[in-house]
């Protein structure tokens, strides 16, 4: 996200991403309204003229999870999530969604993959789309924020960018001997922004007391992070949680909403590296998404970019996690892209 992710203009992007073959059920006997996701996805091709729409890009990577001593498998998340999306009923006013394919991490080349993701996201924003990035581990967030930062520094240099993380973990770890990981993205972003004198606006919903050490809570306080504990995000706390979100979003012109699926209860979302024993109820997460989608500023919607990270099909034998992730992805595309 720092100078390494800001030195190449978006025009340097090359369409080398791998594409998914969208297929699914068709019901011609039900008429023109029998529309599903796979009918509305439009694949990106080189040189193609594109109208601004919500747009998907996958980050097929779990190198950051491996470096963070987690369970590998999230690299398969984007493909499995698309399969779960394909047969969902299409219920949106927007005519469709673009699919920019997958940025793939080869081996342990995490930093190279994050740079490629940043380039892709910057192009998507330059063309007027609102990216939804399908991870991959939560190392996804460093690359996707890098693209938003790169685009905004040229197109909206005065915009106040904020990161709202729905997550059981702060992911503010310092980079250690193993290098950047799924536990370090927001610490890296903080350090990059601080180095150039830019503010770090970061808030978390769903933080677990037992999944974050005292060192991480101390780091959060030192970086000016705001957070709300999972135990304070139950359904009966919904009004207070939404007020927390609204207060943060009000201070931002552009919002990066990043959703680590391990924020959900493990019984609802088993398909992650670290399932949550408590977590935040699905209906609360949906309400938070809706609140961010509804936020408007003088130039239109505030939500500029969303991540959906940590889906691990290797630990999802019944496919429940993929189906829940698909519901959330469907919700994330339910608004107009940023103008």
UniProtKB/TrEMBL annotation:
Binds 2 manganese ions per subunit. It catalyses: N-formimidoyl-L-glutamate + H2O = formamide + L-glutamate. GO terms for molecular function: agmatinase activity; formimidoylglutamase activity; manganese ion binding. Its cofactor is Mn(2+). Pfam families: Arginase. Mn(2+) 2 binds at residues 167, 169, 260, 262. Its EC number is 3.5.3.8. Pathway: Amino-acid degradation; L-histidine degradation into L-glutamate; L-glutamate from N-formimidoyl-L-glutamate (hydrolase route): step 1/1. HAMAP family: Formimidoylglutam. This is Formimidoylglutamase. It comes from Caenispirillum bisanense. The gene is hutG.
């Amino acid at each position: 996200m720092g100078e390494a992710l800001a030195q190449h203009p978006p025009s340097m992007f090359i369409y080398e991403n791998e594409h998914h073959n969208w297929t699914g059920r068709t019901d011609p006997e039900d008429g023109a309204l029998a529309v599903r996701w796979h009918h509305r996805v439009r694949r990106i091709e080189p040189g193609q003229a594109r109208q601004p729409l919500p747009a998907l890009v996958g980050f097929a990577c779990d190198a950051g999870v491996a470096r963070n001593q987690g369970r590998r498998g999230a690299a398969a998340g984007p493909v499995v999530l698309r399969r779960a999306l394909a047969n969902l009923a299409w219920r949106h006013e927007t005519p469709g969604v673009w699919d920019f394919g997958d940025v793939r991490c080869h081996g342990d080349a995490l930093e190279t993959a994050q740079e490629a993701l940043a380039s892709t996201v910057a192009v998507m924003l330059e063309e007027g789309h609102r990216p939804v990035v399908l991870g991959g581990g939560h190392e996804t967030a460093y690359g996707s924020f890098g693209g938003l930062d790169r685009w905004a520094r040229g197109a909206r240099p005065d915009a106040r960018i904020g990161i709202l993380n729905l997550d059981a973990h702060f992911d503010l770890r310092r980079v250690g001997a193993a290098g950047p990981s799924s536990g370090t993205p927001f610490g890296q972003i903080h350090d990059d922004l601080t180095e150039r004198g830019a503010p770090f606006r970061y808030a978390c919903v769903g933080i677990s007391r037992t999944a974050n050490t005292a060192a991480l809570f101390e780091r959060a306080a030192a970086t000016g992070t705001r957070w709300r504990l999972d135990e304070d995000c139950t359904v009966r706390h919904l009004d207070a949680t939404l007020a927390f979100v609204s207060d943060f979003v009000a201070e931002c012109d552009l919002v990066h909403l990043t959703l680590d699926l391990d924020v959900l209860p493990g019984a609802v979302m088993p398909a992650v590296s670290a399932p949550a024993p408590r977590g935040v109820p699905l209906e609360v997460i949906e309400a938070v998404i809706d609140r961010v989608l509804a936020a408007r500023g003088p130039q239109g919607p505030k939500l500029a970019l969303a991540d959906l990270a940590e889906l691990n099909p290797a630990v999802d034998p019944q496919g429940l996690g993929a189906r829940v992730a698909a519901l959330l992805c469907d919700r994330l595309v339910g608004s107009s892209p940023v103008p």
